[in-house]
Amino acid sequence: MKKQCKECGSLMHGRSDKKFCSDLCRNAYHNKRTAILHPAVKRINRALQKNRSILALVDQEIIPKEELLDEGFNFKYETHRTVLENGTVCHYVYEQGYMQIDAQTIRLIRSKT
Ligand SMILES: [Zn+2]
After folding, report:
1. What is the CA(40)–ligand 1 centre distance, in A?
2. Which superkingdom (predicted)?
């Protein structure tokens, strides 16, 4: 059975595991896929970068949640979280962390790195 190039559809001979007729087609195919991902990835990356720099610029350990919101912090975006033995959730944006003390108050976690 002859295979078709995933990009241009031309029939291919030779190695049966080939997906593209040429490097040009392979690159074109992958570039398109990257372009499709871009808007969402860029938007979320921007939000993470912003959250990270807001946390990095805070010079106190305890801060009202409201102040972070005023700075444009978006609590929806974090990179990972850990849960302490007492059940407290530590949220991280890269190396910057925080935990919620109560509904209005945030405690920042200063990591050593
Ligand atoms: Zn092709």
Report:
1. 28
2. Bacteria
